[in-house]
C-alpha cells in the first residue's frame, strides 16, 4: 500500500500534463481526465481496509501462529525471543522448554535456552544447554561464542578462549567473538595476544 501513493502521484502528474494539453478541448473531456486520479485516490484510501488482520505486537502474531500450528518449533522459539527482549526470562525459558519437550535435538532451542538461563544467573544449566547446542550444530559460530561467554562468566577463561577461537574459525568476522576473545586474553595476562 505504500507504493499506492507513489502511483497516485504519478497519475496526478500524468493527468495534469494531459489536462494542460486538453485545455483547448471541450469541458467534458477535461472532466473525464480527472476520473483516473480520483479512482487511484479511492483505491489508495481503501487499501488499509482491505488488508488481512494486523497484530499490535509480535506476541499477538505468535499466539495466532501457535494456535494454528501448536507443534511447530519456530513460533515457540520466536515467542521466547520476544519474551527475552522484554526481560521476561522465565517466560522465555518456558517457551524454549516447550520446544525441547517435543524435539530434544533442536540446536537453536538449546542455544536460546542457554542464553535465557545465563541471563537468569543459572550458569551451570546454561553451560549444559550451550554444550548441547554446539554438539548438535558444531558449525554454528554464534553457539560457540555463547558457550565461550558462559564459560567466561563461570571463571573458565581458558575454555572460553578455546570457544571464541572456534567461533572465529567458523566465522572470522564475528565481531563479538573478537571482542570477548580480547577481553579473555587480557584477563589471562596475555596482553600481546589480546592486542592482535
Explain this structure.
There is one protein chain. With about 200 residues, this protein is mainly alpha-helical. Helices cover about 80% and strands about 0% of the residues. It contains twelve helices and no strands. Helix 4 runs antiparallel to helix 5, helix 7 packs antiparallel against helix 8 (about 125-135) and helix 8 (about 125-135) packs antiparallel against helix 9. The longest helix has 20 residues, at about 1-20. The radius of gyration is 28 Å and the shape is extended. The relative contact order is 0.06.
Biggest β-sheet, characterized?
Answer: none
Give the low-pLDDT segments. Answer: none
- Can you tell me the overall shape? extended
Residues in β-strands, percent: under 5%
Portion of residues in helices? over 70%
Number of continuous helical runs? 12
Q: Please compute the radius of gyration using only Cα atoms.
A: 28 Å
Structural class: mainly alpha
Q: In total, how many beta strands? A: 0
The span between the termini is 50 Å
N-to-C order of helices and strands: HHHHHHHHHHHH
Summed over residues and divided by their number, the pLDDT gives a mean of 81
Quick description:
This protein has helices at residues 2-21, 27-32, 35-50, 58-68, 73-85, 89-102, 107-119, 123-136, 141-153, 157-170, 175-187, 191-195. The chain is an all-alpha fold and 196 residues long.
